[in-house]
Amino acid sequence: MTARYPAPALIDFACELLVAAGLDHDKAETVAEILTEGDLLGHTTHGLNLLPLYLADLEKGSMAKAGGPEVLADFPAAVTWDGRRLPGPWLVTQALALAVKRARQNGTGTVVIRRSHHIACLAAYLRPVAEQGLLVLLSCSDPTLAGVAPHGGRTAVITPDPLAAAWPTEHGPVILDVSMSITSLGLARRLQAEGRPLPGVWALDPAGRPTADPAAVLGTPPGALLPLGGLDHGHKGYALGLLVEALTGGLAGHGRADPAEGWTGTVFVQVADPALFGGREDFLRQTTWVADACRATPPREGFDRVRLPGEAAGAKRKQQLALGVELYPGIMDALRPWAEKLDVLVPPANAAGG
Questions:
Q1: 203 - beta bridge partners?
Q2: Residues 22, 58: contact at Cβ < 8 Å?
Q3: Which residues pair with 165 in a beta bridge?
Q4: What backbone phi and psi angles, to 5 degrees, belong to 204?
Q5: What is the rounded average pLDDT for all residues in the chain?
Q6: What DSSP string describes 275-321?
Q7: Can you give the three-state secondary structure of 206-221, one letter per residue?
Q8: What is the mean pLDDT of residues 138-164?
């Protein structure tokens, strides 16, 4: 039997923990919703797995608890914020709302944020925007960390630098969330704690030798993750990672060239309204044709059919909304001490077959 938790109960639980830790209620509710959405989509390293770390940063003052971002620049289609180390999920949600509004007026709306706290699972933000008939791009970097080596190098310079996007078709949105490294640091930490290797030769040890040992990445001295594409084609992920660095730290004017302040997110948010380009109906006609053509492609051996990005995660989300969220082992155990410390009740699990 599998222990599952109703998604609303997890949201309420996470919100209560964050409020008890001193976070404003509106911010706590948004953070709780985004973290739970990450688990609903199956991104188990970037869902409620992050909550103990967020609570610890609230406790030590590394995450701001109240207030709003400082507006550094405000043009019709381009806005820059200093996030003041406020919770990343709340800042990104606010930035998306503003970008949607500006895109309706100007065709595109872009918000870049310096000095945000960590923003969790990028895919968790996208569905509501795409369901409004809009195209959305979201990316982030953490200028205080280095975990990914440039192609041909042996020491880490940048972070996994994820890029996420979503857009509508007539049959539902396409949603992608891809790191520019071959895997995430979160997965490496989890596998190291569980005594398991990486699924492939995805990393370099401190001497620059290829390895599947996550401890080689996270030890002292540290190794590095390989860029997306690995040993053979890592030049592609490396180039895309540099693009993300330019979109985030470059456009925000703050990043790796500045002193480190703690766990940080530098964020790029952009929304485009097809109605102000070639037209909404023609946009859907084009995106739907491509999506349908991909789905209709005969599958090769080992595949039952061709899927679109985000399709499997969407099916998992639908199932978990109906049956309850199956948390990755250890997540609730890590939250129980915080619940006891902050005097918050742990939600009961429902037993489900599987």
A1: 211, 225
A2: yes
A3: 137, 176
A4: -125, 140
A5: 96
A6: GGTT-HHHHHHHHHHHHHHHHHSPPPTT-SS---TTHHHHHHHHHHH
A7: CCCCEECCHHHHHCCC
A8: 96
Residue carrying structure tokens 């090769």: 300
Q: What is the pLDDT of residues 284-337, one digit of tens each?
A: 999 999 999 999 999 999 999 999 999 999 999 999 999 999 999 999 999 999
Can you give the pLDDT at residue 354? 41
Reported residue count of the chain is 354
- Beta strands 163-167 and 210-211, pairing class: unpaired
Residue 61 Ramachandran class (φ > 0 left, ψ -120 to 50 alpha, else beta): left
Instruction: Give mean pLDDT, residues 74-78.
Output: 98
What digits encode the pLDDT tens for the residues 88-99? 999 999 999 999
User: Is there a contact between 2 and 353 (Cβ–Cβ < 8 Å)?
Assistant: yes
Mean per-residue pLDDT for 248-268? 96
The three-class DSSP label of residue 323 is helix
Take residue 100 and report the two structure tokens written for it.
């949607």
Q: Which residues contact 90 (CB under 8 A, 6 or more apart)?
A: 26, 27, 30, 31
Q: Six-digit token pair at 29? A: 């509710």
What is the average pLDDT across 109-113? 98
Check if the beta carbon of residue 252 is closer than 8 Å to that of residue 260.
no
d(CA 17, CA 10): 11
Domain architecture of the chain: domains with CATH = 1-66+314-348 (1.10.1530.10), 69-178+235-296 (3.30.1370.60), 183-225 (3.30.60.50)
* Bridge partner residues of 325 (DSSP): 5
